[in-house]
Amino acid sequence: MRSKLLSLVLDKGTLLEPEAASYILEKEDPISYVEDLFTRFRDKPFVITMEEITKAEGIAVFAADKAKRMPVVAPKPPRPRTRDVGSSAKDCESDIRILKDITGESTCQGSIDDFHCHFRNRFHQLSGILKQRRELRGCEDISKAKRLMREVRFVCMVYKVNRTRSGHLILDVEDETDTVAVLIPSSLHSDDFIPDEVLGIVGKTGKNDLIIAERVFRPDVPPGKRFNEADVPVSVAFLGDIHVGSKTFLSERWEKLVKWLGDSDDLARRVKYVVVPGDTVDGIGVYPGQDKDLEIDDIYGQYESLAGLLSQLPDHVEIILQPGNHDAVRPAEPQPALPSDVRKVFQDNVTFVGNPCLLSLHGVEILAYHGRSLDDFVGAFPEVSYERPLAGMREMLVRRHLAPIYGGKTPIAPEREDYLAIDRVPDVFATGHVHWAGIEEYKGVVMINCSTWQSQTTYQRMHNMNPLVGRVPIVNLESGAYTMLEF
Ligand SMILES: [Fe+2]
Ligand SMILES: [Fe+2]
Prior knowledge:
Elements: H1 2-11, E1 15-16, H2 18-25, H3 30-40, E2 47-48, H4 50-69, E3 96-101, H5 112-130, H6 142-145, E4 151-163, E5 169-174, E6 179-184, E7 198-205, E8 210-217, E9 235-238, H7 251-261, H8 266-269, E10 271-277, H9 299-311, E11 318-322, H10 340-343, E12 350-352, E13 357-361, E14 364-368, H11 374-380, H12 389-399, E15 428-431, E16 437-442, E17 445-450, H13 458-462, E18 471-476, E19 482-486
Parallel strand pairs: 1-2, 6-8, 9-10, 10-11, 11-12, 14-15, 15-17
Antiparallel strand pairs: 3-13, 4-5, 4-7, 5-6, 7-8, 9-18, 13-14, 16-17, 18-19
The chain binds fe (ii) ion (2 copies).
């Protein structure tokens, strides 16, 4: 049985640690157990260790528990997965599953203990990803690494970035056992280290407990990511930052969009889902002097108007509505879905989710995040700007975290589980917030910034912000192909 087990694992392109093999062989049906195990891995590991098994079993328990408690949307029964459904979204049953969302799960009170748990959870999630790398196998805790006189490897969280006069960087880093200073020679860095990010370090111990890094790893997206293709011919369209209630809401462009969605155009007929990644309305009192920019100065009036606009979309289109920093929920991220007194004005085809939210549409995983942290990325990385938000989204994927910079412009609620960590690599990663538009791929992930339906406000003119309006990015869930239309 052992050799059969090992060859099965090898066939699947991975290896099995002896301890893990013994554990599996004790199962009643080791082969079925392994087959099931592979369906639970978020990212297939290079070597299956006991840690991987524990994590995969934990995911199964967590998913089952979550399914019991999830208040946001009841999973709809899966439809038969067949291509024989015609080429119109009208003919397809919807298949929306919420995989990760803070709504109804918040425990945060802002205590010191909450912060401690939050950062420890972030470290566990991201160090788990890093430890899957071959180069970091057998890594030590910092307390042990400091005492070794050979090559050392460990995973750590940065808490301070210091620059020496000679141009090197010294990172003060920590794990749960100790702290240490790590010298990053200038040949290894490009000024992109930030506090609270999680790194893997391979290096040598030097004098005075200093570790000299030879290689630095970030969690990143592993190579070989493939798009989870849906078995039905449907697409998802993204309508970012609608800002209903603003004087500069673009009603004529909206009417064009509504007309197009009702058309017999091939592309339009396939649109089954619309995702709105935040700033659905303009809100009240979000920035100084906003009242002068408002057409509707009542928050419920704004949501009623939004509900009316969304009801103009074809009935077969399912709408997924997420809040942003202009919406009527707490400003700190992760944000829960809109409250029930707001939800009741919308039609049944609207699903309310939190920010961020990982959801699945026919098996295609979409990470929707409003994108408030892009404000922090713009200041921290020279290649990121309000006209280049995709560069910021790439940095989020590289660090596997939506808002790694704590204490900047993005308010963060220290939930015990860090909902902003990107523990699963999505097929599509969508943000809004910066009122720009773009699509590009990064290591197999389709990154989208979702435009806006609000033209320049006086406040934006004062801050020299020039929005790219009325664009609609669309992703074909069957193939992963994408396009962007302008209305
Ligand atoms: Fe916005
Ligand atoms: Fe925003």
